[in-house]
Write a structure and sequence with these properties.
mainly alpha; Arc Repressor Mutant, subunit A; Tetracycline Repressor, domain 2; 9 helices; elongated
Length: 205
């Protein structure tokens, strides 16, 4: 896979590039990578292949750019902002995280990565780095600062396990059925996961 050159884009060009990315995301997530052509993307955005190739030298580059764009968009707001207390802070973070991964964008991104990873060496790893690990690191950094709580001997392990428990059956069911879980289901799952963490269920492996 070739890499896109670094381009100095004007605001108008940047807007055009983002428009193409959004259109490509819609088409890729609907049809899949193999069944999507650059003509399909151009049919949505207008313009020419020459313009598209200026920003993305290949369909693979375009797909990787889409994955990065949606990864960035789905983790917006996933910063740990301390609120009234530890439980409340973790609950707020967990609620935002779970709502994010069961959102239409979150589910479409996950499905696309799982579907296409066997055909694209490095795609799964890039997703881990760009999305999963970024979120885990945000939480681990917060947990590392909670020295008085002593939640775990290893904050990174605790963060990974907490996020895995949050995803659990709720995320899997949403992936398989396409049905967004209710606010009550999300809230119950988050609070149960928070209590497990605070109770010290997650320790160094």
């Amino acid at each position: 896979m070739s890499s896109s050159p670094d381009l100095l884009l004007s605001p108008r060009e940047e807007a055009r590039r983002n428009e193409m990315l959004s259109a490509a995301a819609e088409v890729f997530f609907k049809k899949g990578f193999s069944r999507t052509s650059l003509d399909d993307v151009i049919a949505v955005t207008g313009g020419s292949k020459r313009t598209l190739y200026r920003y993305f030298p290949s369909k693979e580059d375009l797909f990787f750019a889409v994955i990065k764009m949606v990864s960035d968009r789905t983790i917006v707001g996933l910063t740990v902002m301390p609120v009234k207390g530890l439980r409340e802070t973790l609950t707020t973070f967990g609620r935002t995280y779970l709502r994010t991964i069961v959102s239409p964008d979150g589910l479409a991104l996950f499905r696309a990565v799982v579907s296409e990873s066997p055909h694209f060496p490095g795609l799964g790893q890039r997703f881990v780095v760009d999305a999963t690990k970024r979120v885990s690191d945000i939480l681990a950094n917060f947990l590392a600062q909670q020295t008085e709580a002593r939640l775990s001997e290893d904050p990174q392990v605790a963060a990974d396990q907490f996020l895995a428990l949050l995803r659990g059956s709720v995320h899997l069911e949403a992936l398989l059925t396409g049905i967004t879980p209710t606010a009550e289901v999300v809230e119950s799952d988050v609070r149960r996961s928070v209590e497990a963490l605070v109770a010290g269920a997650f320790t160094k492996a």
